[in-house]
Amino acid sequence: MNKIIEKEYFSDKVVKLVVENPLIAKSRKPGNFVILRVGEDGERFPLTIAGADPVKGTITLVVQIMGVSSSKLVALEVGDSITDMVGPLGKPTHISKIGTVLAAGGGVGVAPLLPIVEAFKQAGNRVITVIAARNKDLIILEDEMRKWSDEVIVMTDDGSYGRKGLVTLGMEEIIQREKVDECIVIGPAIMMKFASLLTKKYAIPTQASLNSIMVDGTGMCGACRVSVGGKTRFTCVDGPEFDAHQVDFDEMLMRLGGYSQEEKQANERYLLKL
Amino acid sequence: MRSKTKNKDRALIERVHMPELAPEIRVKYQDREVNMGLQLEQAQKEATRCMDCANPTCIEGCPVSINIPKFVKYIEKGDILKAAATLKETNALPAVCGRVCPQEKQCEAKCFYVDKMSKNSVAIGHLERFAADFERNSGTSNIPETAEPNGIKVATVGSGPAALSFAGDMVKYGYDVTVFEALHEIGGVLKYGIPEFRLPNSIVDFELDNLKKMGVKFETNYIVGRTSSFDDLREEGYKGFFIGSGAGLPRFMDIPGENSNGILSSNEYLTRVNLMGAATESKDTPVLKGKNVAVIGGGNTAMDSVRTALRLGADRAMIIYRRSEEEMPARIEEVKHAKEEGVEFMMLCNPLEYYADAKGRVKGMKLNRMGLGEPDASGRRRPMPIEGSEFELDVDLVVVAVGVSPNPLVPSCLPNLKVTRWGTIVVDEEKMQSSISEMFAGGDIVRGGATVILAMGDGRRAAENMNNFLHQSID
Q1: How many separate helices (H) and strands (E) can be counted in chain B?
Q2: pTM of the model
Q3: Half-sphere exposure of A24 (CA within 13 A, CB side)
Q4: How far apart are the first and last CA of chain B?
Q5: pLDDT along chain A (274 residues), means of 10
Q6: Is B88 helix (H, G, I), strand (E, B) or coil?
Q7: Lowest mean pLDDT: which of A165-179, B295-309, B411-425?
C-alpha cells in the first residue's frame, strides 16, 4: 500500500509522484485531498489529489519542497512506500454545466486544478485556464491543461516563459474579453487573495481551494479554521473549497504563519542531519 | 472468604492511598505516570475491606457490569491472575478503565461503605488497575475464550473505547471483526486525547494486543464512507456495522480574536502532544509553547491540557472556568493533581475577547467575572456576568476546552441515517440500534460527549443486541 510507482521532477523543487492506493484511486473526486505521514517521526500534512487512475489503482500527487515533511516525501524513491496516507478527504468540487469557467492556478496549485479543469470540460463547459508561476522552470502540467482547456494562458512573474505578469493580469484580459460564468482559483494564499479581489470586482462567482494547516484532516483538531462570511469554518470538513469572495484571506495568511518559527527550526535541524 | 474476617474488622481498615509521583518531579515529564499503582500487600489489604455483599450494588454502578466482588476477592486471596481474568470477562480494557474511569461516580458511589456507612468506598478503581497491571507485568497474559468462528463479518467505524469494547465482545461471540480507524494509530481518544501522564500509550497498546490475539483485525488510515462506501463493505460481506466515530468537531466560543495564532482547541493541542509526540525533538510535529497559558473550560480535557502546558514549560498555567469549582465536571482527582502541580484556578471568569500582536499571535485576553444565579437546565447554577467586572490578562497560548460536537464525517455519508439536530446519531437507547437496522452506534457520536466507560458500556450493549439481531435475520 502507498507504494511509489512513478516519480518525475518537474523542477528542482517540484516533484510528481504516482502512488499506489486502489481504494482512494477509486473513491476520490476532483477537489478531494489526502493526509500523509512519512516515517514514524513524521507529521501529518494534507496534499490535494492531482489525478487518479482507478484501473491501475494509483493517485497522482504533486509536491513542492517547502520544509521537513515535503523534503521527506520527495526523498522517497520509486518502490518506497509512504508510511501513512488517508483519504479521500474534504468535499469534492461542485461540477456542473454552467457555461464558461475560468480556472486559475498558481505554482503547484496547478496540480490539484487539473482534475477540476478536466471535470468541468467533461461536463460540457468552455474552460479557459491561466497557469502562473515565478519563472519558466516552475510552470507545470501545461500540456495536460491544454488537453482539457479550450485555451491556456501561461504567465510568469519574470517573463521567462509565456507572458510576463501575475496571474490576475491574464485573468482580467479574459474577463474583459468574454463572459465568464464561474472562476476557480488554486494556488498560494496571496495569489488566491488577489485573484478573488479581481473577480469580486466583476461579480463572478469564485471558488478557492484553501491550503490550511491541518493535523488530523477529519474535523477533529480545528487547526484549519478559516473565517468565511464572518463565520468560522473548518477547511478539512467544510471545504477545502469555499466562496472566495467570503474568505478572510488576511486571516488565513496570518494563520498559515502560525508555526513559521517552529517550521524553520525543524527544517534547519533536518538539513543538519543530512 | 466471608467467614475468614469479620465484617466489623474489615470495616476498620482505612481506605488505601494511591502512591503518587511527587508534583515537583512529575511536572517535568509528559510521559511519567502520576499514579504509581498499589503494591501487592496494599491491594490485598484494600481488597479485604470489601464485604462481598450478598447483593452487590457496585456492579449496578459499572456500565460494563464487571463482577466486582469476584475480582476483589481473588485479590484478597492472592490469586491476582484470576482477578484479571474476571475483569476481562466483561471489560476489554481493564488497565485503561482502572486509570481513567470516574469510579467515584460509578461503582464506588454504589459501594456499601458509601451507601450505608458514610465511609470511603472500597478503592475498586485502584484494585482494577492493580490486577490488570499485575497480569501485564507477569508476562502471562490470559486471552479470554472466544466462541467457534461463525464467519459473519462485522465492522466498527472508529477505534476508541466504544468500538474496542464492541469488538471485544463480538469476537467472543465468534464474529469476524474488523476495526476501521481514520488515524494512523488505533485507540481513538485513548491515544490522541488522554495524556501519557494519566494513561501511557504502551498500556493502551498492550490491551490492543489482547484484542488482536482474540482475533480482532485492525485497519488504520481507513475512513468508512470515504475510503470505501458502506455499500462497498456490504459487498465484501459485512453484515453489521458499529459506528463509534466519536466527538469530532471542537467547539469554540465565537468571540473576537479567537482565530489568532496561539489559540487552539484542546483536541489540537493534545493530539499534537499525545498522538504526534510533539514534545519530543525527534518528532516533526510542532507544538506552540507558552509562558502564560490559559485553558478555557472545567472538564477533564481542560485538566489534561493545562497539566500538559505545565509539563511543556509554562510559568503560569491557568484554568479559566465560568462557574465555580463545585460545578466543574472534571474528576476530583484530576483537580487535586492539577492544584498540587501549581495550576491556577480562575473560577467564575469568562473570556470576552483576545488580543494579538502584529504577527497575529495572541498576547492577551479580556475577561469578566461571573456570579451564580438560579439553576439552569443542567441543574447547575447559571453563571451570570457581573457588570463592570472586566479585566485583562497576559496570555501567549490559549487552549479552548469547552466541548466538542459529533463528527459529521460518517453521518454525512449516510443520508438515511437519522441524526438529531445536534448531529448525534439517533439510537434505540436499550439496543443502541440506529434507524438503519444493521447499524448500531455508541459513545460520543450518540452521547455528544461522555466518558470512556459509558462509551464502553454502549459498545457492549450494541454487541449483545447486534448479535441477537444478526442471528434473527440469518435464521
Answers
A1: 18, 16
A2: 0.94
A3: 31
A4: 45
A5: 95 94 96 96 94 96 93 96 96 95 95 96 97 94 96 96 95 96 96 97 96 92 95 93 97 93 87 84
A6: helix
A7: B411-425
Using the predicted structure, report yes or no on whether residue B2 has a pLDDT greater than 70: no
* Local structure of A184: helix, strand or coil: strand
Subunit contact B229:A259, Cβ cutoff 8 A: no
Classify residue A72 as exposed, middle or buried by CB count within 10 Å of its CB (0-12, 13-18, 19+): buried
- In angstroms, the CA A46 to CA A15 distance is 16
Which tens digits make up the pLDDT trace of B10-64? 888 999 999 999 999 999 999 999 999 999 999 999 999 999 999 999 999 999 9
Reading the block at residue B42, the C-alpha cell is 496494599
- Contact yes or no for B360 and A85 at CB 8 A: no
Question: What is the 8-class DSSP label of residue A216?
Answer: S
Report the alpha-carbon distance of residue B426 to residue B247 in Å, rounded: 15
* Nearest chain B CA: its distance from A100 CA (Å): 31
Separation of alpha carbons B32 and B26, rounded Å: 7
Q: How far is B411 from chain A (nearest CA, A)?
A: 12
DSSP-assigned states of every residue in B372-415: EEEE-TTSSEEEEEPTT--EEEE-SEEEE-S-EE---TTGGG-T
**Under an 8 A CB cutoff, do B271 and A221 touch?**
yes
- CB-defined contacts A:B, below 8 A: 125
Verify whether the Cβ–Cβ distance B268 to A223 is below 8 Å: yes
> Backbone phi, then psi, for B94, in 5-degree steps?
-65, -40
For B139, how many CA atoms within 13 A lie in the half-sphere containing its CB? 0
Angle between helices B300-311 and B332-341 (to 10 degrees): 20
Q: How large is the angle between the packed helices B161-173 and B201-214, nearest 10 degrees?
A: 20
Q: How would you classify the pairing of strands B153-157 and B176-180?
A: parallel
Range B416-437 average pLDDT: 93
Q: Where are the beta strands (DSSP E) in B202-348?
A: 217-219, 238-243, 249-250, 263-265, 292-296, 316-321, 344-347
Contact B359 A254 (CB under 8 A): yes
Q: What span, in angstroms and rounded, lies between the C-alpha atoms of A156 and A106?
A: 10
How far apart are alpha carbons B91 and B211 in whole angstroms? Answer: 11
- The alpha-carbon gap from B119 to the nearest alpha carbon of chain A, in Å, equals 42
- Across residues B154-183, what is the average pLDDT? 96
Output the CA torsion sign for A21, A26, A30, A35: negative
Cα–Cα distance, B314 to B225 (Å, whole number): 41
Interatomic CA distance for residues B227 and B221, integer angstroms: 9
Q: In this complex, is the C-beta atom of A83 within 8 Å of any C-beta atom belonging to chain B?
A: yes
Q: Residue A87: which region, alpha, beta or left (left: phi > 0; alpha: psi -120 to 50)? A: left
The grid coordinates listed for B16 are 488505601
- Taking the alpha carbons of A42, A47, A51, A53 in that order, is the dihedral positive or negative? positive
Q: Where are the alpha helices (DSSP H) in chain A?
A: 22-27, 68-74, 110-122, 142-148, 167-177, 189-201, 235-238, 249-256, 260-273
Distance from CA of B430 to the nearest CA of A (A): 29
| CA nearest to B360 within chain A | A254
ipTM > 0.90 (yes/no)? yes
Burial B408-440 (b: 16+ CB within 10 A, else e): bbbbeebeebebeeebbbebeeeebbbebebbb
- Long-range contact pairs involving B102-106 (C-beta distance under 8 Å, separation at least 24): B102/B331, B102/B451, B102/B453, B104/B331, B104/B332, B104/B333, B106/B61, B106/B62, B106/B63, B106/B453
- Determine contact, residues B203/B137, Cβ cutoff 8 Å: no
Chain A residues within an 8 Å CB radius of B281: 269
